[in-house]
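Teaching assistant here, posting this on the class forum so everyone can see the example we discussed in section. The complex has two components, and the goal was to see what a joint structure prediction looks like when all of them are supplied at once.
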Amino acid sequence: MRVLAIDTSNLVLSVAVVEEERVLAEMTTNQQKNHSVRLMDCVSELLDATGTAPEELSGFGVANGPGSYTGVRIGVASAKSMAWSLNVPVIGVSSLEVIAMNATGFSGLIVPLFDARRGQVYTGCYRSHGMEAVRAQSTEQIILLREWLPLLRDLAQGEPILFLGEDVRLHRETIVQELGNQAQFASPAFNHPRAAHIGYVALRKLQDGGNAHELVPEYLQLAEAEAKWLAQKQAGAVKE
Amino acid sequence: MGDIVMNKTYTSRYEKRIQQKYEAHRESGAPTYILGIETSCDETSAAVIRDGREVLSNVIASQADIHKRFGGVVPEVASRRHVENITLTIEEALTEAGKTLDDIQAIAVTYGPGLVGALLVGVAAAKAISMARGIPLIGVHHIAGHIYANRLVQEMEFPLIALVVSGGHTELVWMKAHGQFEILGETRDDAAGEAYDKVARALNMPYPGGPHIDRLAHEGEANVPLPRSWLEPDSYDFSFSGLKSAVLNTLHNAAQRGETIEPANLAASFQDSVTEVLVEKTIRAARSHGAKQVLLAGGVAANRGLRERLQARCEADGIPLVIPPFTLCTDNAAMIAAAGFIKYEKGQFEGLDLNGVPSLSLSEQ
């Protein structure tokens, strides 16, 4: 089975074509944010490079957030539309999990994060099990980094904690202040998402369905206007 | 220094498929089915039309009820709904038309102007389907779409003048032929529909306010003195922010004096001012450009006051007027497919690098 995988959820654009036994092609850039302009040309190029007709694809995988709202939507809208038009399944994979998979084999907590401004991060907490990154905590969330770090210390119980992601460098000082030597950092080669990882999650889950219509982004937070409206509603200030 | 020639031997499989599909269809002489996609604001819409004129389906997933609670369209909320609805809406349009993607010759999508996040969802979906199924991709200007809604009702005759009025646009467009647009005038500040919404809010009416003002205006008398913004004598441009301020000042001053102004009369006076300027400039443009037709387009074309006034003036001047039915006036994908058909006939397709352009210009079409 051949799967096309995409990640445009942050600054990185990554596209891959994978089969069960090998990655046929993968292209990743970490420079520009014009994903809307470049994504489909990259897809076309990778399909041509691997001699794959779109009809030969058994399914799609896509990073469905968290991340840049627009970036996530470009990936999800493109992947679900291709999958729907070819009548094959599409699997959404957490953008954080994709990066956690870079640390396959690491023993300790794996903590991918994206900066979410005002001291906040989008983050989750994983452990490596075989080829998979398994959540050590059930939910991913947007949280203040200074609230997240003590929680991680409790969860890790003395084990090392590996921080992954392009934005880790923005917060490295804070992390080290709180966790000292327990905090570990990876070479830049492990900080960006690789679409091939998404391809393998998708391959595992394709038989579960993956209806294109139902694939939606996971933003981890409401649009600002919605959040305000809900708060007002809860305070009894507005009627439906 | 001369131009260089670069021999390029590589053509993508996608490009070859598009070329072959187009040539095969043109030779066959079979009807042309175009799938239209529109997501420039708060309606997710998909449609299938035949030969540029016949609507087989026109599905509109409106978000109006969601945005009502915010008092206007919230771009992030609109974009989120588009991505949730996009494939369902397209599937529904095909099913309703009794077609599959195998029957579709081209996908026409709005790529501007509009809300960038919203546009990008439709553009991404259109490109993805185009790539996956080897179907030619056509980029359509939203206003060109509004104008071509008229062709779904009656054949266009050139030269013509189109008055485009909506919540985001107020434009007078001159067309000499299919696909050629020249903007004679446009608003310098608020769009006409925007002025309606703001005045409606001042009169405590819900969003969107246009239909409420229109209804109220028919119950009142235009007896409140309000300005007409004609601008320079030869200008076809519009300006509605002064009028809007005048309405707000009138209300404010009356309140300070403890007087009440009959809202219906104020609505009638406001509508009188807006429609007088719109209609007179349209007629002047039609006369000076020898127009064989006047087309009304855009969401505000549903406004009864504007329709009646324009109809009366066109009749008096003997200029044929075309107004699409209400469902084709507001944002919809059938009009996008109709405008896309003109480009299909000329073989004007977009590459997979098509982007959403929030301030796309009409004259570059």
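For the discussion questions: Residues 2-95+192-222 of chain A form a domain with the Nucleotidyltransferase; domain 5 fold (CATH 3.30.420.40). DSSP finds seven helices and twelve strands in chain A. Think about how each of these relates to the inputs above.
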